Amino acid sequence: MPKIEVFPLVGIPEVRKGSDLARMILDAASTHSFAFKNRDIVVVKQKVVSKAEGRLVRLASVAPTRRALALAAKEGKDPKVVELILRESVRVVRTGHGVIITETRQGFVCANSGIDQSNVPKGYVALLPLSPDATAKRLRARLQASTRRRLAVVITDTFGRPWRNGQTDVAIGSSGIAPLVSYAGRRDRFGYRLKVTEPAVVDEVAGAAELAAGKLDQIPVAVVRGVRYDDGDDGVASLIMDPERDLFR
Amino acid sequence: MPKIEVFPLVGIPEVRKGSDLARMILDAASTHSFAFKNRDIVVVKQKVVSKAEGRLVRLASVAPTRRALALAAKEGKDPKVVELILRESVRVVRTGHGVIITETRQGFVCANSGIDQSNVPKGYVALLPLSPDATAKRLRARLQASTRRRLAVVITDTFGRPWRNGQTDVAIGSSGIAPLVSYAGRRDRFGYRLKVTEPAVVDEVAGAAELAAGKLDQIPVAVVRGVRYDDGDDGVASLIMDPERDLFR
């Protein structure tokens, strides 16, 4: 059985608006003699994508609406941050205990519309990338062209979840990898036909990369090697549950 | 930066009631010349724990109550399975589209009280282990005594989640590893004090192990190496969110 390996890619410099992420990844790999192999999965944290794509907002430039002021007072949050949370969302799912859970414009249900203040310059916040699947696709094309390897790209963010404490990294964008592995219809060793088993491989890859990169180490890129995955370019948008089937709306 | 490695442990024979899982793991490692190292995390799938602990139930032996019959009819499920789902739960969280989401006696919120029919003999279902943290603790003691290595143990199951299609493996029991890594109070490179970042490292380890072991391959054990984790023996029970803070009850 092949093992899986997760390599943190050290040496990515501070990312700014307009930074060429593909170039930075290739340079860091080259500097550290890291050679990409076919079917490696390049995992990139949302924060550097948001920075490169100019998705930092200076809080001083934000004028909160009355709705944002009221919600901010209720949840004990900065009204300017709440204003951005509302702007980046299509609906508010739950609020309480200082938490605002929304459905983002990209379709993700998460705290604070995915906006956060860590690892960004003081006075700024980072919004989610507008279209993480498209970013993954562009990044993949660049990385494949330079390395001449068959690669996949996954963009990740750190989300909480209901019922359990703590957060895990999950995929918010992907290219070159089917987000789900479908076992539906296959049979187990007892001949039982598997009905609904569809491992969300992109989310497990995201978590594995987080284990290698960590939060404080300023390592925004990891490479996951050895995962058996299906080819596919549906992106993480295809993971979003049909509202008709969603029991938690 | 150290890499992370995930080794599927091949060669575990079919597990039956009373099987000595620790012995089976040690034998499989020995057969394949796999040498445990200090701080390796041994990840074991729920199904083999349930089998070893006699948590298979013959469906023919189950008499459904009226409540189970009604819910089974509504959701198009086997009344005997629904009876077991209800017995294994402390409350029903949501039902619909053929899915019954409960809070289990162990405190997990998941589909069908974690009961499933794959990879078990025909006519049987597997219930969750009664106390997966205790199982992890016992297994860890046995494995450490034999290998003379400092190990951690994580027991995993496959759970769906709201809002996203597919499932991921998550931890249901652990020993020798703090389930959360707390960054609260630490500062990022811009001096911002991190507030709520607590990666659920046991869940990310569970997902990483699933990537290596897969569903159909009959590999119920994987070893994860290279993860930086805190020592701790609170178990996965400590991950269960305080109902007072849970916005999705």
Portion in helices of chain A: 25-40%
Assembly state (oligomeric) = homodimer
Query: Which of globular, elongated, flat, extended, rod-shaped describes the shape of chain A?
Result: globular
Any idea what the radius of gyration of chain A is? 19 Å
Number of H/I helices of chain A? 6
Mean pLDDT of chain A: 93
Low-confidence stretches of chain A are none
Task: Please name the fourth-level CATH homologous superfamily of the largest domain in chain A.
Answer: CofE-like
CATH architecture of the largest domain in chain A: 2-Layer Sandwich
- Greatest contact pair? A-B, 75 and 74 residues
The helix/strand order of chain A is EHEHEHHEEEEHEEHE
| Proportion in β-strands of chain A | 15-25%
Number of domains of chain A: 2
How many strand units of chain A? 10
What is the CATH level 1 assignment of the largest domain in chain A? Alpha Beta
CATH fold field value of the largest domain in chain A: 60s Ribosomal Protein L30, Chain: A
Terminal CA distance of chain A: 41 Å
Structure description:
2 copies of one chain form a homodimer. The model of chain A has no long low-confidence stretch (mean pLDDT 93). Chain A folds into 2 domains: 5-54 and 129-242, 60s Ribosomal Protein L30, Chain: A; 57-125, Alpha-Beta Complex (CofE-like fold), CATH 3.90.1660. In chain A, the strands form 3 sheets. The first copy, chain A, has a 5-stranded mixed sheet with strand order 1-10-2-8-9. In chain A, strands 4-5-6 form a 3-stranded antiparallel sheet, with helices on one face. A two-stranded antiparallel sheet of chain A has the order 3-7. The first copy, chain A, is α+β, with helices and mostly antiparallel strands. In chain A, a hairpin with a 2-residue loop joins β8 and β9. Chain A starts with a strand and ends in a 24-residue tail after the last strand. Chain A is built from 6 helices and 10 strands, in the order βαβαβααββββαββαβ. β1 of chain A pairs antiparallel with β1 (4-8) of chain B, so a sheet runs across the interface.
